[in-house]
C-alpha cells in the first residue's frame, strides 16, 4: 500500500470542501491511548487475515 502525505492545511481537489475540512475534529492520540493499542493479530479474527491473504493473491 502506498503511503500518502498527511495534509495539515486544506487543499482543494481531494473530494471535500473547506467546510468539511473545518468540521473534522481529530486530535492526536494521547500517550495513554497509544499505550492501550494492541497488535491487530491480538484483536482481529483469523478469518480477517485469511481474507487478506486471499485478496493479496488476486
TrEMBL record:
This is Uncharacterized protein.
Amino acid at each position: 500500500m502506498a503511503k500518502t502525505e498527511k495534509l495539515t492545511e486544506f487543499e482543494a481537489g481531494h473530494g471535500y470542501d473547506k467546510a468539511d475540512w473545518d468540521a473534522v475534529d481529530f486530535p492526536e492520540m494521547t500517550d495513554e491511548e497509544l499505550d492501550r493499542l494492541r497488535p491487530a493479530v491480538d484483536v482481529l479474527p483469523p478469518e480477517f487475515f485469511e481474507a487478506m491473504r486471499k485478496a493479496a493473491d488476486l
